[in-house]
UniProtKB/TrEMBL annotation:
This is 7-cyano-7-deazaguanine synthase (Queuosine biosynthesis).
Amino acid sequence: MSAIVIDEVSADGQVLECDLRPRGDVKRFFTGKPFEVDYDRSIEGVPEGVLAIPALAHVCPVAWANGADVYADEVDATFARALADVRDVLDSMYDFIEGGELYARRTIDPEPDARGESALLFTGGVDSTYSYVRHRDEEPILTSIRGWTITPDPADDGDWADLTERVSAFADERGLETAFLETNALSALDHAMLLAHYRHRVDGSWYSSVGHGLGLLGLCAPMAYARGVEDMYVAATHWEGIDLEWGSCPEIDDRVRWSGTRCHHDGYELTRQERIDAIADYVDSEAPTLELQTCNRRMDGNCGECEKCYRTAVGLRLSGLDPTARGYPFSHEEYDEIRRSLESGAWELGEDERYMWADIRDRARETEPTSAAERQFFEWLSTADLEALVSESASPLSHRLLRAGARNAPASVYDVAYPTWRTAKSTLERVRSR
C-alpha cells in the first residue's frame, strides 16, 4: 500500500523544513531530500498545522494520482477541508486521479492575528501586473517565489537577483511590502519522473497542469499566517471560454484556504488583451514609466525576440501602448519575423499560445493598422489556421517516444535517459531561437 508521511515539521527562524517519507510505488516520485522553504522573515510561532501546509500542498496531488494516503502529526482543519475540495476538482479534470485520504493525529483551528492584509503572487508580467492594478487600493504584499520557473540551482542566482530587484523597485515606488520565498519543492519531489510518467496525460508538465495553483498558494501559508494576510491573490493565466486542464484555475484556487486566509483566482473574467487594456489605462493615469517583464529567456529585461516577447509587444500595440516604452524593443518591420516564426514552427507552441494568438487576432480585426507591415500581418493573422500552426510546432516524435519509454523505466535507467532527452531538447530550443 502506497503512503506518504510528513514528518519532523519545524521552523528555525525563517526556514521551514520537514521530511517526506514515501512508501510503496509512490516512492519513485521522491528524491529523498527534505522539503524546505526559506522565508524572508521569521515564521517561528506559526502553528505546526499551518507549517505543514506547504509540504501537503505539493505532496497530496502526487498521492491522489497514486491512490496513496498521506499522514501528518498536525494539520490545519480549514486546509484539510480545502484539500478534499481540490482533490474532487482534480478528479473531475483527470482520469489518473485515484484518490487517497489525509490522516492527522490532530487537527487545529487556530485564530490568527487578522490584520486585514492582502497579498498577491507577483512577477511583473501582464497577469500579475493587472491583478496589482485591480487591487492596488488594498496595497497588497507583493509575493515572489523561487523554486519553479527560477530554480534553487546556483546557476539561477542571477535570475532570482534580477527578479527580486525588479519587484522591490516596483514595490518601493508604490509604498508596498514584499515577501520573497525560496523552496526546493520541485527537487524534493522528483519532478523529472513526474514529467515522464504523466506528460502524455496532461497539456504541459506535471506542475503546470496539476500542481502549481495549490502548490504556490500553499507555500505562502506560513507567511500569510505570520503577517495577517486575509486575502491571497493569484493572477489568472487563462480566461472564460478556454477549455484546458490547468493546475491554476478558479475551481482549484478559489477553494484553497487555511485559518485566517482565503485564496482567489484573480482576473479570470478578462482575456489577456483586456488585462493589457486595464494596464494601459493605469499607465495613462498613474504610471507613465511602467515596464513589464514576460520574457522566456531572461529576467533582466525582455529579449524582444522570443515568442512571448513578440506576443506581448503586439498586445501592447493593440492596446495603444508603445512596446519599446514598456520594455520590449519592437519595430513594425518585425511583423514579418513573427509570421515566419509562426509559419515555420520555429517556436514550440501549445494550446495556451493558440488561445492567446486567437485573442490577439480578435482584437486585430477591430484595430486600424498604422503601417503597411502591420496591415499585412493583421490580414494574414485574420485567416491563419492557428490550430495547424500549433500542431506543426509540437515536440519532435523522437522526444515524445523517449519520454514515453522513460515512464515505465526503473529509476536508475530513467536517471540516465532523462538528461539525454533534456540535452536534446535544450539543443533544439537553442537552434530554434536563432
